[in-house]
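Following up on my earlier message about arabino-flavin-adenine dinucleotide. Here are the inputs again, as you asked, copied directly from the submission form:
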Amino acid sequence: MSRELKTTVAIIGAGPAGLLLSQLLHQSGIASVIVERTSKQRVLERIRAGILERGTVEGMEEAGCAERLHAECIPHDGVILSFDGESFEIPVKAITGHNVIVYGQTEITKDLVEACEARGQQIFWDCPDAAISDVDSDAPKVHFTAPSGEAVTLTAEIIGGCDGFHGVSRQAIPAERRRAFERTYPFGWLGILVDQPPVAHNVIYANHEDGFALASMRSETRSRYYVQSAPGETVDDWSTERFWQAFTHRLGTLGQQVKTGEPIEKSIAPLRSYVSEPMRFGRLFLAGDSAHIVPPTGAKGLNLAFADVRRLSRAIAHWKSSGSDAALEGYSLDALARVWKIERFSWYLTTMMHQFPEHSGFEKRMQRAEFDYIRSSEAGQSTIAENYVGLPF
Ligand code: FAS
Ligand code: PHB
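Thanks, got it. Here's what our run produced:
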């Protein structure tokens, strides 16, 4: 059995980028079809980002999906840096006039899936074999097997490649036409969720001689904590006892106030910086993790994905309404200009706040000097503050 479908924009991936793209296109009266590799349940269960910058909130408002976000989010007016137990807070709102909010990516995804379903958006879940063809024509196609077993050919005018780092979209750009830039870090993050009140009212980034730790939250009663883990370690290498000992120790005096408990979730993620250029080939446009990855230090991954999608949805809407493809032509360069600034900030904070096996005494002194400079400098704190709340869109 086979089936031919047509739409304006074929979107690969029902993560935050794909879902937001579909919702924003809908707001502009543009039809789309989403093809997702895994199940709706798996997508909705994912636990990832937690801190949203202003542009992401604006994206959810433009999508008409910000009601629960505004009702349930926790505003953060500052961010805490800690070094070998000494800490200070950067008053990001006092410096920039903007704050960030705590509202988990899990909630973002739920809100977007709910909005898509409420308007009858077609999402093909459980389609692991999507393949792309004809991207250099004006009728690009996505081929996949629907759960019904039908072989579907989805013909579109544009393909949105929102299928994350391990998707197929980036590979649809001929290898000789794309260039990757990558830095793999010699550590990972082990993260837990625990139903205990957070240790602080803002996010804490801590560098300690034993390793990095991060204290965040999902609500006033649920905390999200991370510790730097060694390359190759798995969740099984980290007993709950080992986690709490490392986490509380690395936070110094702040660690003495931590309320511990049995985690309700534990996961480990590698850290990498990665950019694939260009973010467009013919009628294929990449947005989010399909084009770039940032280490989660600085909480930029999801926020950068949303910035891409807001830019792409506006470019498509402009093309459809005016017939001019100027915005589409400029998409890759404009998006990459922001991507590289966010890559810089995430790399900078990762380099400043983690223990690197290859670091000599000199690099460790440089890390401490950076911390002491930021602590004592309004200019230094302003630099971190304007990046943390989100560079202007
Ligand atoms: P996603 O990877 O979220 O979504 C891509 C979607 O495409 C997925 O649903 C996938 O199933 C689907 N897909 C993949 N291949 C496909 C195919 N061939 N066909 C169809 N569909 C396909 N960011 C932060 O800011 N803070 C954090 O703390 C943080 N923690 C993270 C932890 C982990 C383990 C990971 C992997 C990422 C984390 N990130 C974090 C980054 C993360 O939040 C991403 O930036 C965000 O999910 C990007 O969204 P998307 O671009 O939609 O990609
Ligand atoms: C989170 O709340 O999951 C979080 C916060 C800050 C980060 C990364 C993750 O830099």
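One observation from looking it over: Residues 184-271+354-389 form a domain with the D-Amino Acid Oxidase; Chain A, domain 2 fold (CATH 3.30.9.10). Hope that helps, and feel free to reply on this thread.
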